[in-house]
Design a protein that fits this description.
Blueprint lengths: L10 E6 L6 H10 L3 E6 L10 E3 L5 H12 L4 E4 L5 H11 L6 H8 L1 H11 L6 E5 L4 H11 L3 E5 L9 E3 L2 H18 L6 E6 L5 E9 L2 E9 L13 E4 L5 H18 L4 E10 L6 E8 L19 H9 L12 E7 L5 E7 L1 H5 L4 E6 L6 E2 L10 E7 L2 H14 L1 E5 L13
Parallel strand pairs: 1-2, 1-4, 2-3
Antiparallel strand pairs: 5-8, 6-7, 6-8, 9-10, 9-12, 11-14, 12-13, 14-18, 15-17, 15-19, 16-18
Helix pairs in contact: 2-3, 4-5, 5-8, 6-7
Length: 427
Amino acid sequence: MSVGIGLKGKRVLLLVPPVTYRATDFVLAANRLELDVVIGSDGALPLGGNPVVRVDPADLGASARRVLATVGAVDAVVAVDADMLPLAARIGAALGLAGNTPESVAAASDKAIQRRLWNAAGVAQPRFQIVPADAAESRFREAARSIGFPCVVKPVSLSASRGVMRADDEAGLSAAASEIRAILAESGGAQRQAILLEEYVPGWELSIDGLLADGTLAVTAIFDKPDTPDGPTFEETLLVTPSRLPAAMLAAATGLAEQAARALGLTRGPIHAELRIDRRSGDARPVMLELAARSIGGLCSRSLRFLGGTSLEMLILLNALGIAVDLGRPPGASGVLMLPVERGGVLQAIEGQAEARAVAGITGLSITIPLGQPVRPLPWGDRYLGFIFAEGGDADEVEAALRRARDRLRPVIVQRESPTRPGRGSA
């Protein structure tokens, strides 16, 4: 692909939350494509000298009107992170741009709506029950008995595995529901929000990232997730692509992700789907866990390589502009290891960084939490300490390099004297 040819003068509105990993990569991608960029944000500083229009994601109507009055016509509206997806859909609809409807974006961001729509469309997924967060314990026990233990308990609105816990019995269920209520209260979520109980599905986990165009999914990457835990929490750590699953299984998983996106009403833009391979019946089959109307989170997109030096962010911008692109990948494999917060406290240092960078195959290491900041593990925390990137001849080689690099890092986290929980971050 010839970067920027025919795109000069195209105008894109980037909606940027005040705290995100992704803003710089999107602005750099827009610059490489020679796009005219306007930033819409409720707190981000000017990026690359681009003008900033103030928006409030909590007031979609007023924000949309302000953007339309200030910015005028644009060729595409792109949400840099999940918080801005509803506003992007609202503005895009007001401008008559092709894209996902506000209703489809709302469905993708609410796990309860998602489950119900998938159920109606016959999408393979775990058995589930939806319970109001303030329901009596007897209601939770009744729902869990209909599913069976162990089960997974999660809030319907949070992401990045925050508040997601496994319950093996009624005592664990009660504790999980109580903790989720407290997490929702701290995050500003509605007290009466629903809690999702779903059947626990053991098995290999993978994620599928791709771009929708007229409802058809073009895969950008399929990641194996070999270190996904079985509980009690479900932090993501190691991601490696291409997947080592058989081609027939990957085709079935991709088809299921496209069906799931279509059931939500999504037609354009990036998706990030989480699936597990259920082998309990003897015939292995993919089942949907979650799907978001965004690309892979954090800095994980930096692990992906496309032909011509194209980045994932460039592909997303081109897709938003209605331009078909070649999603070809060069030979070899790549991956990322997200550094989890293993205990709560204050981050004092991360030792061994030079040794980790020196591991063969490692292409980058980014520490994303400043020293001196409070940190905490899941299910309360929603940030990673940083990201390690690797490339190699095959997925096994990449996985081994990431593990060797991780073993050389020594986070120093000092316990806080006060029992007060540290403040919220962003993932």
